[in-house]
Structure formats: C-alpha cells, structure tokens
Design a protein that fits this description.
Elements lengths: L3 H10 L7 H8 L1 E5 L2 E5 L3 E5 L10 H13 L5 E6 L14 E6 L7 E5 L7 H11 L4 E6 L5 H12 L5 H15 L4 E7 L2 E9 L5 E9 L6 H15 L4 E5 L4 H9 L3 E4 L3 E6 L11 H6 L7
Length: 299
C-alpha cells in the first residue's frame, strides 16, 4: 500500500505510463513503492517497473534485489519485469523460476509525449492541429459516468478487428472502472448524434497528463485527429505541460503520434516474464485473463 508521502513523490516525479498507479493497479494489482521503484502485486504475480522517475537514473542492481526479495521472502509465483534495458534475473533459477517470455526493446515501445503547454509546435504538427480544429464533429466533454450502448458498440468493433493479446485482455477488464471514474476525462466526437469516437485521459502527475485509450469508428475520416487535438486542449486546461500518449502497438500508430509532434521521454521497453510451478505452464499470468482462464491466444 502506498503512503501519502509516496503518493506525493509519484505525483511529483512520475513520468512513465507505468508510474500511473491508479490505472495499472486496476489489472496489475496493489501498488507499492520499493526502493524508489513502483511494484504491483496481485496476490501471485509481481510486476516490477524498472523505469526511473523523472530526473533519476536506472539501477539494474536494485531491480535484481527487489525481484529476489519477492521470490525469496514473499513467495511470488511469477515476476514480470519492464524497464529500459535488460536485467539478468538468472538468480531466480535457484528458486525454481524459469524465463517464459522475453521482449527486446523496439522503437515503437518508446513513450511519446506531445507538448500541450501552448509553446510553438513544429510546422507539421501545427498544420495537423489546425486541420483537426476544422473537422465537422460535435464535441462532448465530460467526466466518467454512465456508458451508452454506442460506447459499447465502438469498443466491441475495436476488439473484433484486433487479434486478442494479453495487454488487450487486461485493458478490457479495466474498461468499466476507467469509463465510469470521475477522475477520467472523456472526449467524444459525434456526427448527426452518432458517436464516431472517444478518448479517455487523466492527469496523474503534476505536469503531465496521460492518454489511456482512444476508440474510433475506422470508417469515419478524421476522427482520430479531432480527438487528439481536443485532448491536448483539455490537458492544457488541467495545467499539464505535456501529454504522454504512451507506447505504440504498431509502426502506423507510432508514426501517427510523431506527426502530432510526439517526442520520446521514456525509452523503449525490455520485457521479461519469470515464473515457477503451475504459473510457468499457463498461457497467461495476468490477473484478469487468469481469472477467466482465457486460452484463445498464445503467450
């Protein structure tokens, strides 16, 4: 459990989307701050965020020490590590762990930030922003609340058109809490009263807002740009200097964020899963998919 002092430290120094403990705890488990690293625990699985806070340095030895402590003293069954570079966790083999998944850093996993302070943007991003303001959508702004059938239709369309992954399954479990929470800002684009897309974001850090999701009807032209422009406007009104639009699932998403002036402030992500016992034989180790025994995709 986080103390009030730790919450203040995260708000002041947080930068990565993985530091956004309110959102991540919805699917990764209870948040802890251990040796200046955020750790999430769901009762069986520990997720260690190795990305340092703003203006601080990465320490691989601290990452190893925290992982070893959870394996030896708190009997975690699986350990997920995410950080800016590889950390050897071979020390866990003595405790019956084996590495069951690993993902090397790729450029598209850089977390991109878009300036929303009102400072001059690049010529390209300025043109993109101005075009987005001219789109003929009706804008609705609200905090989380009742979710309409149109929201659910767009969400189902989004999931139907994508191959199911562990990350998408985790987000699906978090969606009800995200969309109904009063701390979340929802930006909706409508045309002739029909919902064409919506974006959700909040401001968990002192100077940085974080985009959580954007769902659009792919047949409606220009809705993504419209939502991005309005999300930047609203983030600025909340006092944010920049908007973290996160890592990207594809090169196309990455280029879209670059077009908007996105610049990397959190490096690409190294990912590893270590597990022992029954957990090492599962298709998935995160809480939501594990709870429902989802087995229609590979690790």
């Amino acid at each position: 459990m986080l103390t009030s002092q730790q919450i203040l430290r995260i708000r002041t120094k947080g930068i990565s989307a993985l530091h956004d403990y309110w959102f991540n705890s919805l699917f990764a488990g209870e948040p802890y701050l251990e040796r200046d690293m955020l750790v999430y625990y769901d009762g069986r699985v520990v997720t260690i965020c190795g990305f340092p806070f703003r203006e601080e340095l990465f320490d691989g030895e601290v990452c190893r020490s925290v992982a070893r402590d959870w394996a030896l003293n708190r009997r975690a069954e699986a350990i997920v590590f995410m950080g800016p570079r590889r950390v050897s966790l071979d020390c866990l083999r003595k405790e019956g762990f084996r590495r069951i998944a690993e993902g090397r850093p790729r450029r598209i996993t850089e977390e991109l930030f878009i300036d929303c302070s009102g400072a001059p943007r690049s010529a390209l991003s300025t043109r993109v922003y101005r075009r987005s303001q001219a789109r003929d959508f009706d804008l609705t702004l609200r905090q989380g609340g009742i979710v309409s059938a149109q929201h659910l239709q767009l969400l189902e369309l989004f999931y139907r058109e994508r191959e199911l992954s562990e990350e998408l399954a985790e987000v699906a479990f978090a969606l009800p809490a995200v969309l109904r929470s009063r701390r979340i800002r929802l930006i909706e684009a409508r045309r002739n009263k029909e919902l064409c897309g919506f974006a959700a974001f909040h401001k968990p850090f002192a100077h940085t807002a974080v985009g959580l999701l954007m769902i659009v009807n792919p047949t409606v032209r220009g809705v993504s740009d419209f939502l991005y422009g309005k999300m930047l406007d609203q983030a600025r009104l909340l006092g944010a200097c920049d908007l973290n639009v996160g890592s990207s699932p594809s090169l196309g998403h990455f280029k879209f964020k670059l077009k908007w002036g996105g610049r990397p402030q959190v490096p690409s992500c190294y990912y590893a899963q270590w597990a022992r016992g029954n957990m090492a034989r599962r298709y998935h180790i995160s809480w939501g998919p594990r709870l429902t025994r989802l087995k229609n995709y590979s690790p």
